[in-house]
Design brief:
Helices cover about 30% and strands about 15% of the residues. With about 220 residues, it is an alpha/beta fold. α2 crosses α4.
């Protein structure tokens, strides 16, 4: 599992994301927590590039890192859910020497999939999004990468915008023929929903660990 932290793209760091290992490792999984530079030091476009470059580095060095490159799942909450979704969309992998199926699954939690609303709000103070940025960086505007499992999750006490965007993301991907499910978490809020990843008895953890068919091994793509 590749976990990307939330925090409105400006806080905190991967250190606070280690909680996810509590449930995952005893169940036989492994965890990688990603860092990226923060706003307003860099743009969301650069954060996206950094996350993609890190995932590509992990994939290319999977043997050294003891990673099964056929079973990589990306997840994250809030802003991390947005960045996880930007790893799920099609169109970027070739530039990093990756195959289309480099990611086996995705589980964005309470993510932002359309950035146009925040470009009109106070968040714009540190993100400075242009109209071109909104189009390029909204996962809802992009087709899914083909052939891997996806689940979209949010909690039942979310501000309405998060639930509405999650449903829209699900509908758009389902319409594109992508196998994608939805999960509304009971009794959680925007800030603690991802904590279910640390508890093997919780719905979000079970969604993460639902079977991902192992793909046939493929010849390694040379690094660019």
């Amino acid at each position: 599992m590749v976990f990307i932290h939330g925090g409105y793209w400006r806080a905190p760091s991967r250190v606070e994301s280690r909680f996810a290992a509590t449930g995952l490792v005893p169940a036989g999984g492994s965890l990688a927590t990603l860092d990226h530079a923060l706003a307003a030091e860099v743009s969301i476009s650069e954060m996206t590039r950094q996350c993609r470059a890190t995932l590509a580095d992990m994939w290319h060095n999977a043997e050294t890192l003891a990673i099964d490159r056929r079973r990589i799942v990306v997840t994250g909450g809030s802003a991390g859910g947005h960045l996880a979704a930007m790893l799920m969309v099609a169109g970027w992998r070739a530039g990093f020497g990756l195959p289309d199926d480099a990611v086996a699954g995705g589980l964005p939690v309470s993510g932002r999939f359309d950035l146009s609303p925040i470009a009109r709000r106070f968040v714009q103070e540190w993100n400075g999004l242009s109209a071109r940025d909104v189009a390029a960086l909204s996962p809802l505007s992009h087709l899914p990468a083909p052939g891997y499992r996806a689940m979209v999750a949010w909690d039942d006490t979310e501000p309405t915008g998060f639930g509405r965007q999650s449903r829209a993301f699900h509908q758009a991907w389902a319409a594109a023929g992508q196998p994608v499910g939805v999960l509304e978490l009971a009794g959680r809020d925007h800030f603690d929903a991802v904590l279910e990843l640390a508890d093997g008895d919780r719905a979000l953890f079970r969604a993460l660990m639902s079977p991902i068919p192992a793909r046939p091994a493929r010849r390694r793509t040379a690094q660019p």
